[in-house]
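Per reviewer request, we include the raw input and output of the structure prediction for the construct analysed in the revised manuscript.
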Amino acid sequence: MIFNSWKWIDLSAIPGPLDWAGFVLGGLGIGFTIYQLMKSKGALNAAREELERTRATLIKNQLLSVLPGFEELMDRIDDAVRTGNREELSTQFQKFAYRLAEAIPLLESGSTSFSSLIESMKSEITKALEARSSLYGSPDTPVDELVRVNVDSLQILVTQIKTTTVSVRNDPGKIPAEEAKNA
């Protein structure tokens, strides 16, 4: 035979039926792997969306637990002003500033629609701490005279916070993080 005289052709290396079956099974395995990768990509996207939805719900719940506390703090500040208790007033101003600092990142991570409230909160932190400092500058001056302007300013902020709390609570269609995405 003519093929046997050619040294570079080895007829024993021709694929047999088992080789072809292995080739077909390998191709099926690669196809199944690609299918599974595409399927897992869809699951990854679904998990990512669910994670974002859960994150937004947690932010909303944190806002709903933090924001109502300002009303109680404001009542305590008013009581301390009425009684002239400088120590209690100092403590409440400090708590108010701390609570504002806690609420600002929650509002920032949730929605851009709260930007004016966030700016007001940032300026009121300074005012609360200034009012706290002014308590001991003039021990003979009545507490009411020392902090009345700052307390009135905080009272206006608390009203804005109440409005925001109601809007966050009563808006079931959108949670804060979703509003930021759509803006």
